[in-house]
């Protein structure tokens, strides 16, 4: 495969063909990080986007929440389910069209990428909440979006005959290393850049940028740790696939910083598997 010598701007330029993240969802993600987000403003942002609202309400009315009556609008959903929950549902509903797509060149199916992304979000949320080291809500969004850089890169790999997986396996190198050789940048770097270009807060873009190298993260290291550990757990549990396993370098310093020993790691992994199974059932039911 020939080497592309392009700037990050050029590399992400083709993503204009991809479905954009709805601006209502971006506002909701931004507010999750700031302290001034209110139930009213989340409901208001959502009300500007009818299709996003419809998807959020479908998720809210799934059997998972077991509501005795159906919620009919975002305002009501916030009252019944709480602000945090509705924010997360908005993020799920908004990112699904972006993440449920085939990653050409990586040989990843839409279902696998979505499952891996969703699982990493749920795992990062669980770790942040359990270890009390970061905002669970922000960890969820960063985890969910951690591999968006691959979506941007796969557009360049669409008509290539040799897949990244074959080359990576033969050379026994990680995908990120291979990406740097081919594109001059890896998917983590590109993902962080893409998140910034959508005006997402640095609490989301930095963990995306450093999800493979959390020890290098500067301001939001705990969030990067949570995403990194959740990513590894999702791979160990083989939930979905995103074209990284088995060439994945795990940074054990992330565990040390989060205060997770071997026993806690196993406990978290078991909880993670259960939490994912429940959320996946909710998602499948509402998507059906
Ligand atoms: Fe990655
Ligand atoms: Fe991943």
Structural account:
The chain has 288 residues and is mainly α. The chain folds into two domains: 82 residues, no CATH class; 189 residues, Orthogonal Bundle (Hypothetical protein af1432). The protein has 16 helices and no strands. α7 packs across α14, α9 crosses α12 and α12 runs antiparallel to α13. The N and C termini lie far apart (39 Å). The model has no long low-confidence stretch (mean pLDDT 88). Bound molecules: fe (ii) ion (2 copies).
Explain briefly what this protein structure is.
This protein is mostly helical and 288 residues long. The protein is built from 16 helices and no strands.
Helix-strand layout with pairing:
Elements lengths: L7 H6 L9 H11 L5 H9 L2 H11 L13 H8 L1 H17 L10 H22 L4 H10 L2 H10 L6 H8 L3 H9 L3 H11 L4 H8 L11 H16 L16 H6 L3 H26 L1
Helix pairs in contact: 2-3, 2-6, 3-5, 4-6, 5-6, 6-8, 7-8, 7-14, 7-16, 8-13, 8-14, 9-12, 12-13, 13-14
Bound molecules: fe (ii) ion (2 copies).
Number of DSSP helical runs: 16
Task: Note the gap between the termini.
Answer: 39 Å
CATH homologous superfamily heading of the largest domain: Hypothetical protein af1432
Instruction: Provide the residue-averaged pLDDT.
Output: 88
Summarize this structure as a short list of keywords or feature phrases:
single chain, 288 residues, mainly alpha, Hypothetical protein af1432, 16 helices, 65% helix, 0% strand, globular, binds fe (ii) ion
């Amino acid at each position: 495969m020939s080497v592309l010598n392009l700037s990050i701007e050029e590399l992400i330029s083709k993503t204009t063909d991809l479905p954009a993240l709805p601006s209502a969802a971006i506002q909701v993600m931004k507010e999750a990080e700031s302290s001034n987000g209110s139930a009213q403003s989340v409901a208001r942002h959502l009300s500007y986007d009818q299709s996003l609202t419809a998807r959020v309400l479908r998720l809210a009315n799934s059997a998972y929440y077991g509501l005795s009556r159906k919620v009919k609008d975002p305002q009501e959903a916030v009252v019944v389910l709480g602000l945090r929950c509705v924010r997360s549902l908005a993020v799920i509903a908004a990112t699904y069209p972006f993440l449920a797509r085939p990653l050409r060149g990586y040989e990843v199916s839409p279902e696998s990428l979505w499952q891996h992304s969703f699982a990493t979000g749920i795992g990062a949320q669980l770790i942040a909440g359990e270890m009390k080291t970061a905002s669970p809500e922000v960890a969820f969004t960063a985890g969910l979006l951690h591999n968006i850089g691959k979506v941007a890169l796969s557009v360049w790999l669409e008509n290539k005959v040799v897949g990244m997986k074959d080359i990576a396996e033969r050379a026994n190198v990680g995908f990120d290393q291979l990406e740097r050789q081919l594109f001059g940048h890896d998917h983590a770097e590109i993902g962080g850049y893409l998140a910034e270009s959508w005006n997402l807060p640095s609490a989301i873009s930095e963990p995306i940028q450093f999800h493979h190298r959390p020890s290098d993260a500067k301001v939001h290291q705990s969030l990067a740790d949570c995403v990194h550990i959740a990513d590894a757990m999702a791979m160990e549990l083989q939930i979905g696939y995103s074209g990284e396993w088995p060439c994945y370098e795990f940074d054990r310093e992330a565990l040390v910083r989060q205060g997770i020993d071997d026993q806690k790691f196993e406990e978290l992994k078991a909880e993670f598997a259960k939490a994912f199974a429940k959320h996946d059932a909710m998602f499948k039911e509402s998507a059906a």
